[in-house]
């Protein structure tokens, strides 16, 4: 399976997440407990990975699985980082408005490139660094509202704590992704086995979070497993399947490609979501959106195209044989 096919599929699925989530609402609100969706998505990924691992072991007896505790103990770390990241997200939103937070979220594109270079020792060319910065600029441009709108006055006028937490959130998001890639590539274990370990801890951490939410809420809504399927519709189940499928595709890309491909896929998905929203939700396209799409397409071409396609080097023609060397004496 070629990585660009998986990346394109990831782009389509990711772009439909926001649309499906919006369609799952009824009269502008959720009839289900949306905190149970990530738990069911993790359970779906664990189930699929377990079935694929069972099939792989049945077909081949040489399936590689490292069961040493020194290796297994590394797999809860991504879940812990994401847990901290989610709390930092909520803290950031107490200082900045959602539109500013969304724009600041594009910092994770650059921080991912930096951590990709520092921790995974992957060298990027100058053109690729320029492409990554262009991608961040393009996605930010598509999200900036016109200065004629009322929100323009308050944009980037938040306390310094909000910006510091925004930078921390971008770094944590990048760190979780880069560490997951390191984890998947550090040995030749079966991807299915690695996913089983990752998603087992993912399920456990989501269960702990749901239980903690019940406890902090005084069990007013009862226990979470009593309402886990309450209010679910076909669209809600599509959201769960979508989240689970994108998670499996991301792990494949990190194993056989790299996290930068994943960053491009999710960034292009955001732009695709905006375009689809024009037809589905009467979203009015802006000049900033068109400029952002153009910049991101330029970035995509700069990063993945061969250098020979980007730099037109002058060809050196051999000197004609009829020319004779002329020497000039200095007086």
From TrEMBL:
Keyword Signal attributed: yes
InterPro entries: EmrE-like, Nuc_sug_transpt
Sample GO molecular function, one term: pyrimidine nucleotide-sugar transmembrane transporter activity
Spans traversing the lipid bilayer: 34-54, 74-95, 101-120, 127-144, 164-184, 232-254, 261-281, 287-306
Highest taxon listed in the record's lineage: Eukaryota
Bilayer topology term: Multi-pass membrane protein
Gene Ontology cellular component terms for the protein in this record: Golgi membrane
Signal peptide annotation: 1-18
Compartment(s): Membrane
One Pfam assignment: Nuc_sug_transp
UniProt keywords, alphabetically: Membrane, Signal, Transmembrane, Transmembrane helix
Family: Belongs to the nucleotide-sugar transporter family. CMP-Sialate:CMP antiporter (TC 2.A.7.12) subfamily.
Name of the protein described by the UniProt record: CMP-sialic acid transporter 1
Organism: Tripterygium wilfordii (Thunder God vine)
């Amino acid at each position: 399976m070629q990585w660009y096919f998986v990346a394109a599929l990831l782009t389509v699925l990711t772009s439909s997440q926001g649309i499906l989530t919006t369609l799952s609402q009824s009269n502008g609100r959720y009839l289900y407990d949306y905190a149970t969706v990530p738990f069911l998505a993790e359970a779906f990924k664990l189930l699929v990975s377990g079935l694929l691992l069972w099939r792989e072991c049945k077909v081949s007896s040489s399936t590689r699985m490292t069961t040493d505790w020194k290796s297994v103990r590394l797999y809860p770390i991504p879940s812990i980082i994401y847990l901290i990241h989610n709390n930092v997200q909520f803290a950031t939103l107490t200082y900045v408005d959602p539109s500013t937070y969304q724009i600041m979220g594009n910092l994770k594109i650059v921080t991912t490139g930096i951590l990709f270079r520092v921790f995974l020792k992957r060298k990027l060319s100058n053109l690729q660094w320029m492409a990554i910065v262009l991608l961040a600029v393009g996605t930010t441009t598509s999200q900036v509202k016109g200065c004629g709108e009322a929100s323009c006055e308050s944009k980037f006028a938040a306390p310094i704590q909000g910006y510091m937490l925004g930078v921390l959130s971008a770094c944590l998001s990048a760190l979780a992704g880069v560490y997951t890639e390191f984890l998947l590539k550090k040995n030749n274990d079966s991807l299915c086995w690695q996913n089983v370990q990752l998603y087992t801890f993912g399920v456990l951490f989501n269960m702990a979070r749901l239980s903690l939410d019940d406890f902090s809420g005084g069990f007013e809504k009862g226990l979470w497993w009593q309402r886990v399927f309450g209010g679910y519709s076909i669209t809600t189940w599509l959201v769960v399947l979508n989240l689970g499928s994108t998670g499996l595709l991301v792990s494949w890309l990190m194993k056989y490609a790299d996290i930068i491909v994943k960053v491009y896929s999710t960034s292009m998905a955001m732009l695709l979501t905006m375009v689809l929203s024009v037809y589905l939700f009467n979203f009015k396209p802006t000049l900033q959106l068109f400029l952002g799409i153009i910049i991101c397409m330029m970035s995509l071409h700069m990063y993945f195209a061969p250098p020979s396609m980007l730099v037109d080097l002058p060809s050196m023609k051999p000197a004609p044989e009829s020319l004779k060397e002329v020497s000039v004496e200095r007086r």
